[in-house]
Specification:
Elements lengths: L7 H7 L41 E2 L16 E3 L6 E2 L13 E3 L4 E4 L13 E3 L4 E4 L13 E3 L5 E4 L10 E2 L16 E2 L1 E2 L4 E2 L1
Parallel strand pairs: 2-4, 3-5, 4-6, 5-7, 6-8, 7-9, 8-12, 9-13
Antiparallel strand pairs: 1-2, 10-11
Length: 197
């Protein structure tokens, strides 16, 4: 993968992924959506949220028929000290619903290709060292409910109108219900500590 040996932090995160079991077509002997220690095959057992691939989840699929292949939906790599630009190869997971890489040391700009992730519900890139503007292509993220970019002092410019509303409380008596994918009571777009407006 493009970041495996970028630095010790990336190597530490990626060394826990059994990519050595995957062929060039992307088929892996250790399924990222199977429970730990389970091999691929028609009878693999699916356990929600537990895989051999640390930080990778295949959520919302517990009721699927076993004959239907499971799909990676979440990349969750916060607080790992990860550096450099956001890996574009993560964008190959086109069914992803959550991309969470907050509190790292990521640099560079926000990839415009993220706008192609039509199933994305939440993106958390807060507390990194990102810069530039929010790409116009992010307007295509119609299902986005939470966009956390706070704590990236190098981000500037305007927040596109199509982005989720600014932070609001959910779950209280007068507020809207909280989405099922998060336990946070504050949802929406968070741009505190940036130069976005």
């Amino acid at each position: 993968m493009e970041v495996k040996d970028r630095d010790p932090e990336w190597h530490g995160a990626m060394s826990k992924w059994p990519v050595h079991t995957c062929n060039t077509s992307g088929v892996c002997k250790i399924d990222p959506c199977a429970r730990p220690g389970t091999r691929t095959g028609p009878r693999f057992e699916f356990v929600e949220g537990r895989t051999d691939w640390e930080g990778v989840s295949c959520r919302y699929q517990w009721n699927w028929d076993r004959s239907i292949p499971r799909l990676v939906t979440n990349i969750h790599l916060p607080k790992r000290g990860l550096t450099g630009s956001l890996p574009r190869s993560f964008l190959l997971f086109d069914n992803i619903t959550e991309l969470d890489m907050d509190s790292n040391q990521l640099t560079g700009t926000l990839p415009r290709e993220i706008g192609c992730l039509r199933n994305l519900i939440e993106i958390d890139l807060s507390n990194n060292r990102l810069q530039g503007t929010i790409p116009q292509e992010w307007n295509l993220l119609n299902g986005l409910v939470e966009m956390e970019l706070d704590g990236n002092g190098g981000l500037a410019g305007c927040v596109p109108a199509e982005c989720p509303p600014f932070n609001r409380v959910c779950g209280s008596f007068f507020a809207t219900p909280c989405p099922s994918f998060t336990t946070d009571r504050l949802i929406g777009t968070d741009i505190r500590g940036t130069r976005l407006s």
